[in-house]
Amino acid sequence: xxxxxxxxxxxxxxxxxxxxxxxxxxxxxxxxxxxxxxxxxxxxxxxxxxxxxxxxxxxxxxxxxxxxxxxxxxxxxxxxxxxxxxxxxxxxxxxxxxxxxxxxxxxxxxxxxxxxxxxxxxxxxxxxxxxxxxxxxxxxxxxxxxxxxxxxxxxxxxxxxxxxxxxxxxxxxxxxxxxxxxxxxxxxxxxxxxxxxxxxxxxxxxxxxxxxxxxxxxxxxxxxxxxxxxxxxxxxxxxxxxxxxxxxxxxxxxxxxxxxxxxxxxxxxxxxxxxxxxxxxxxxxxxxxxxxxxxxxxxxxxxxxxxxxxxxxxxxxxxxxxxxxxxxxxxxxxxxxxxxxxxxxxxxxx
Length: 350
Prior knowledge:
The protein has helices at 34-45, 125-132, 190-209, 213-230, 238-261, 265-278, 283-299, 303-316, 321-346, and strands spanning 9-16, 19-28, 54-58, 62-65, 90-93, 101-104, 117-123, 146-154.
């Protein structure tokens, strides 16, 4: 039996601004570009990229390091010129003698044969997407720093920490944060994408039941990307359109639920408002949306608006005691505020 050779991998921990963004793992093409892969691995082992910033971040093109001039990196001569650059997340050298490298974020076939392609991002594609999306000048200089904090060798089983996402695979979620970056789904099949979306949603539900509300929020948000990017045409695939639309409604409800638990009031208002205004939603779910938006409005100290939402929720679900309780508590709060203001101003007329 032939055993496939395993390429070595390295990691870069990335910070964007003052916030840790997560880890990018690069698989090195040890066999296709042996000299360059060995050169890069040696530089990682010497921690020569620790503290290095990415000086360019151009959406739909690439992110590139900005190693300080004067470092003679002795970059190996061009290798692997036949390597295709028709997919994103390829890692290439910059032949300027500095040791800079760049990661493509979109197919760049016009660069084939000009740079050595010596690796690919195997984990942490979401982090690269975050780097790419940092606001930059017309020449691609990021407005907030993108920095490599630490580097090292990476082996299977090591952590791949990430911020603003969850890599938890429970429920069968093996999919990338952005569906365009995923290789498991058949992007031409509504069924394939729908099945993936359902697995991601189930992962979120399991995390929510386990008490990890933040990760559940990340999962529901990720699932919504899959739904929104691939919702089929109503005329061409009416049955799949219906399934996607129903899933979309469930996701907005779940996002409003997790957002209110996280006290992210504006997100709660946004997600709940979508349900309220979308039409075709049954009374039970409309009541949930009004109730959650009401709680977010209370959190935002917009008490009168909250009372209106609680009353609307109560009309839709008159037997729901939680709605009545929140309504009474908010009305009492408003009355206390009015009484306090009345007492405060009365002092001026004594």
